[in-house]
Design brief:
Layout lengths: L4 E2 L5 E4 L2 E3 L5 H11 L6 E2 H9 L7 H16 L7 E5 L2 E5 L6 H17 L3 H12 L13 H28 L3 H9 L3 H4 L2 H13 L3 H17 L3 H19 L30 H11 L9 E5 L6 H11 L8 E5 L11 H11 L10 H12 L5 E7 L2 H10 L4 E6 L4 H7 L2 E4 L5 H12 L2 H4 L1 H10 L4 H13 L5 H8 L2 H6 L9 H9 L4 H12 L4 E3 H8 L3 H13 L11 E3 L2 H13 L3 H22 L23 H24 L3 H18 L2 H17 L3 H17 L3 H18 L2 H17 L3 H18 L2 H17 L3 H17 L3 H17 L3 H14 L4 H17 L3 H17 L3 H17 L3 H17 L3 H14 L29
Helix pairs in contact: 1-3, 3-44, 4-5, 4-6, 5-6, 6-7, 6-9, 7-9, 9-10, 9-11, 10-11, 14-15, 16-17, 18-20, 18-21, 20-22, 25-27, 25-28, 26-29, 29-30, 29-31, 30-31, 30-32, 31-32, 32-33, 33-34, 33-35, 34-35, 35-36, 35-37, 36-37, 37-38, 38-39, 39-40, 39-41, 40-41, 41-42, 41-43, 42-43, 43-44, ...
């Protein structure tokens, strides 16, 4: 079995030995196709939604995505090679070896075709290319019509299909089979047939078929089209090609005479062209346009820049070999040694060397200016390409460009040489890292067969090298020296940054560390310090405010340092001008520098900046929530400030992984107070958005840090929060363990508030696990405890929870006094949010008793206490919707339930959305709208499941199963009582 999954056409899965394009639903096939474009790599939720729906998102996109993934998993169980759809962070990935997808098989066959073509084995090359093209069933991802899919499809057509067709046709022409080549050309779409390469092939086919008149006519038509499109470059190249083809067929060349060899080699010969140079097609075409003699876009010189190891020299040399015919007087290559241990080659040295190579009597000319003028005169009228490799800065080559003005010049440098580009109006090209596909192709080619035997390990190693050709080359050379070492073992070793940076270090300064160090050592101390900060920071992207705080330098010095690092390609500055990003492999290097030159002060400033920013964000995003007491900031830091709640929340979401990692870092370096407080500051945002795993991990760090800091109060508080979190997740044993530890600590501390808080949560635990008698008894004791302590806030919470417990047991009369007592206490303490909650609960209770007028009055009172709280408004609208449904006001019921769903979505309250959707479904179903009710229940179940509320999800799915039975009778008919849903349970003490 060559492959088991296909996306070169309709998305297909091999089932029962055949490729099946109809497995699952259209939507599940689309999701599978998207994931198969990058097997083993995560797609974020937002990326998947954009790929699948563009801006035309369904009403509840997260729910729709969850359902599609759930159905996809079911359909893949029937595949010959089942693939696992795995949750990864906030997204998904398909856990599948890339070789099992037709795209990888296509590339493998085309590699074989190219190798055969390079060896002049045209028959094998043709067969391999034809075999690869046979995999192309239709347009890739044919049924998915979104912007991202269209862009991906266009890329694959340009980078895979068209080059494969071009290679195949060339092989047929080389084999003397122009009639077959003509057949393949007829299958080209018109927009592709008009590309220069295919126009040239069609002309060659006409001449090979003995149809010169058709070839001439086709040439003239194509030339006119290029002229009308103002594509002078294509027009010129086509003219040269046609002239050459016509003459070759009209005047076949005589056998070539022996070529005399040069007596001496040319001066400063080029380094050898790398075998198997791959990718960089766009860069090569750009160099063609900028340096080809006669080009309308020709530049006096081209600056080729990029970080160390990116392949600047290799690209320049490869292009020089490719363009050798354009420079009949030769190519001069000079290594200027701008970076590294060798002495720098100065401009005057370059002038003297070139004059000597031209047999000019250098000693007859005195003065650097006179010698430069002599060299310029000597080069006049010559067609020469000069490569000035590894320039240190603009001044290093500024004078040389004036001397070499008659030549085509390529300058390579790790710096962008912006001053040089502006001064001489030069073209500039910055090289990007290779993508994962290109990296793997380069590595596999250098591994000479080993990569195909261990494809998964090779793919992971290529990814680890971060698209840096030098890293890929050194890894491949290391593997060649150790043939007995498996790639899987090498992968494990290279995950250690020290091992990766040291690879290739065999005494000749060729390791990655040596390459990177040659740039780092040239930096001024402030720039070095800022670069090391990137190593301290856990994430690859840092806000300017953070760098300003952590650097401990004047603002202007920090900005200059960042400009220097960007200019050297050691860090990037994305479109957002206030953020800086470091690529993974440089991040590892910066980490090793931070460890070697460890200074505790930058870390203290970094942690203090994040802590103070998080504290300010929490006050803005959650103004009414409790938070840890403030710590004193480190001197000189500049925390980020926020003017809106949304801006603060977005900062928490953007930085949440950094905050978690920094809490770990603070714990490791014994900054226990920050390690304890940081997780508490982000916990409310994580809970709001359902990031419970991150919340649990952070609170575990906080508990350990509090214990190490001998802060039993903070430890008890953290364990209580962990207990609450596990209550939300229905992890009852974990909740009980955490609460037991919290209670013991609070008791030993003699903290009545702590003991009371933990006991309220214990009572909630008993209630949620069905131990109602124990819950009621403990709630009563908590009320007495709160009264004795004079704590009306917790007394109100206990009264509220006790009322809810009794109502859950249908003991409505017994529940009412407790609700009223909670209401009274919350009025005394000015707790308007608590009053709104109690009024809403009372409205729901009276609704159950069909006391509609009383229920309406409590809804009005609840509304009066709500001040822009989306969650409280959502709960109230859910009750109002059920009340309207009970009164047979269908229009109001549907409007209110829809408003509840929308409010829950705006509040990012997944549990609230589930509750609102439940009510919406009940209303729809009771009115006979089975289809929409089933959809609403399905979405509610998905939300419950995503929040870890499996029992509630099971309950909804049981209701869903009944509703999907075509013979089921709707729950309520005209004249019958509508059965309302149970009251929603409150999940936390603070919101109860």
């Amino acid at each position: 079995m060559d492959f088991a999954y296909g996306i070169l056409g309709q998305t297909a899965v091999r089932m029962h030995g055949k490729m099946n394009e109809q497995s699952g639903t259209p939507q599940t096939r689309n999701i599978l196709g998207i994931l198969l474009t990058r097997p083993g790599q995560r797609f974020s939720r937002d990326a998947l939604l954009a790929w699948a729906w563009d801006d035309d998102l369904p009403g509840n996109p997260q729910d729709a995505l969850y359902k599609a993934v759930h159905r996809l998993r079911e359909s893949l169980s029937e595949a010959d090679l089942p693939a696992s759809i795995t949750r990864s962070g906030d997204g998904y990935l398909v856990d599948l070896d890339e070789s099992m997808v037709d795209v990888a098989v296509f590339r493998k066959r085309m590699r074989k075709a190219h190798e055969a073509a390079d060896s002049f084995d045209h028959e094998t090359a043709y067969e391999s290319a034809a075999s690869a093209l046979s995999l192309w069933r239709d347009e890739p991802l044919a049924s998915l019509r979104t912007e991202r899919a269209d862009n991906w499809r266009e890329d694959k057509v340009k980078s895979m299909l068209l080059p494969a067709r071009e290679l195949l046709v060339r092989q047929l022409l080389a084999l003397g089979r122009p009639d077959e080549a003509a057949g393949w050309m007829q299958e080209l779409a018109p927009e592709h047939a008009s590309r220069l390469a295919f126009v040239q092939l069609q002309i060659q086919i006409y001449y090979a078929l003995g149809q010169p008149q058709q070839g001439q006519s086709y040439y003239l038509d194509a030339s006119r089209q290029f002229r009308e499109a103002a594509d002078d470059t294509a027009k010129t190249l086509l003219h040269s090609f046609h002239t050459e083809i016509r003459e070759s067929y009209e005047n076949p060349p005589a056998p070539p005479a022996p070529v005399p060899t040069r007596a001496t080699p040319p001066p400063h010969p080029l380094p050898r062209d790398l075998r198997g140079f791959i990718s960089r097609d766009s860069a090569l075409e750009t160099l063609d346009q900028w340096l080809r003699p006669g080009s309308p876009t020709r530049s006096p010189a081209v600056v080729l820049s990029g970080p160390p190891g990116i392949g600047k020299t290799s690209l320049a040399v490869h292009w020089a070999y490719r363009a050798a015919n354009w420079f009949p007087d030769g190519t001069i290559y000079l290594d200027l040694h701008g970076f590294g241990p060798a002495p720098r080659l100065e401009p005057s040295d370059v002038v003297d060397r070139l004059l000597q190579d031209l047999d000019y009597p250098v000693d007859h000319v005195l003065g650097a200016a006179a010698r430069a003028a002599a060299l310029r005169q000597q080069l006049t009228g010559r067609s020469v390409l000069v490569i000035l490799d590894d320039a240190e800065n603009s001044d290093h080559v500024d004078q040389l460009l004036n001397v070499l003005s008659e030549c085509a010049v390529i300058v390579t440098s790790r710096r962008r040489l912006s001053a040089l580009v502006r001064r001489h109006e030069l073209a500039a090209l910055s090289l990007d890292r290779l993508d994962d596909r290109e990296s793997l192709e380069l590595l596999v080619r250098r591994l000479r067969g080993r990569g195909e035997r261990e494809p998964d390990a090779a793919r992971r190693i290529a990814h680890l090298c971060d698209g840096l050709p030098l890293a890929l080359t050194l890894v491949a050379e290391n593997a060649a020296r150790r043939p007995g070492l498996s790639l899987a073992t090498m992968l494990d070793q290279l995950r250690d940054p020290e091992r990766l940076l040291s690879i290739g270090d065999d005494g000749d300064d060729r390791s990655l560390r040596a390459a990177f160090s040659s740039s780092y050592q040239l930096l001024e101390p402030p720039s070095q310090a800022v670069f090391r900060l990137f190593g301290l920071h856990p994430g690859a992207e840092i806000h300017l405010d953070t760098l300003m705080s952590a650097a401990g330098l004047p603002a202007a010095a920090t900005r200059r340092a960042l400009e220097t690092l960007v200019g050297l390609h050691l860090v990037d500055q994305p479109g957002d001008t206030d953020r800086y990003r470091i690529v993974s492999i440089f991040h590892r290097y910066a980490q090793t520098l931070s460890n070697q030159d460890y200074d505790p002060r930058p870390l203290r400033r970094l942690l203090s900046h994040y802590y103070c920013t998080a504290d300010h964000a929490h006050r803005m995003a959650h103004p009414h929530r409790d938070r840890p007491p403030r710590l004193d900031p480190e001197p000189g830091i500049h925390p980020t400030r926020f003017t809106t709640s949304n801006a603060a929340t977005q900062w928490f979401l953007r930085e949440r992984t950094n905050l978690a990692a920094l809490a770990d870092l603070a714990e490791r370096h014994r900054h226990f107070e920050i390690a304890c407080m940081m997780p508490h500051l982000i916990a409310d945002t994580l809970a709001k958005y359902g990031f419970y795993d991150e919340m649990s991990s952070g609170l575990a760090v906080a508990a350990r840090a509090a214990r190490e800091n001998k802060d039993s109060h903070a430890e008890a508080s953290t364990l209580n929060d962990l207990g609450e979190l596990n209550l939300i997740l229905s992890n009852y044993q974990a909740a009980e363990n955490a609460l037991h530890q919290a209670l013991e600590l609070a008791t030993n501390d003699g903290s009545p508030i702590g003991v009371l808080t933990v006991n309220i949560n214990f009572a909630r635990l008993y209630r949620q696990t069905g131990r109602f008698a124990e819950a009621i008894a403990l709630f009563r004791r908590c009320i007495t405890h709160a009264q004795r302590n004079g704590d009306p806030v917790r007394e109100a919470k206990a009264e509220q929870y006790l009322g809810e417990t009794l109502a859950e047991l249908d003991q409505y009369e017994q529940a009412l006094p407790h609700y009223h007592r909670a209401l009274h206490l919350r009025a005394l303490t000015g707790d308007t949010a608590g009053q709104a909650t109690t009024y809403t609960t009372l409205a729901e209770l009276h609704l159950r008793e069909e006391q509609f007028a009383v229920a309406h009055r409590h809804c009005q009172l609840a509304q009066a206490q709500i001040a822009g709280d989306l969650t409280a408004t959502m709960r109230l609208r859910t009750v109002q919707a059920r009340l309207a449904a009970a009164e047979r006001d269908d229009r109001a019921a549907l409007r209110l339930s829809q408003e509840a769903v929308e409010l829950a979505a705006r509040a990012h309250n997944a549990t609230g959305q589930a509750r609102a959707l439940e009510a919406f479904a009940e209303i729809l179903y009771s009115r006979g709208n089975r289809e929409d009710a089933v959809d609403a229940w399905s979405r509610a179940a998905a939300f419950y499941r995503g929040r870890g509320k499996d029992a509630k999800a099971d309950r909804v799915e049981e209701r869903l199963a009944v509703a999907q039975d075509p013979h089921a009778i709707p729950q309520a008919r005209d004249g019958e009582r509508t059965v309302a849903m149970p009251a929603p349970r409150r999940s936390t003490i603070t919101n109860g």
